[in-house]
Design brief:
Blueprint lengths: L13 E5 L5 E4 L12 E3 L6
Antiparallel strand pairs: 1-2, 1-3
Organism: Natrinema zhouii
Protein name: Rubrerythrin-like domain-containing protein
Pfam family, one: DUF7129
C-alpha cells in the first residue's frame, strides 16, 4: 500500500467533503453533495 492511499472498506463510514460548498458528511460512499450536488472527496485522501 502506498503511504498516500487511504484504506478502503466499503462497509465503513468515512468523512466526505464537497469541492464546491464545503459541506461535510459521514457516509459509506458519497457520489454527490446532498446540499448542492457537486462532487465529493474522501477527506482521508490527500489532495496533491
Amino acid at each position: 500500500m502506498n503511504q498516500k492511499d487511504a484504506e478502503f472498506d466499503p462497509e465503513a463510514e468515512s468523512t466526505y467533503e464537497c469541492f464546491d460548498c464545503g459541506t461535510v458528511v459521514r457516509a459509506t460512499a458519497s457520489d454527490a453533495c446532498p446540499k448542492c450536488g457537486a462532487e465529493m472527496r474522501n477527506r482521508r485522501t490527500p489532495i496533491e
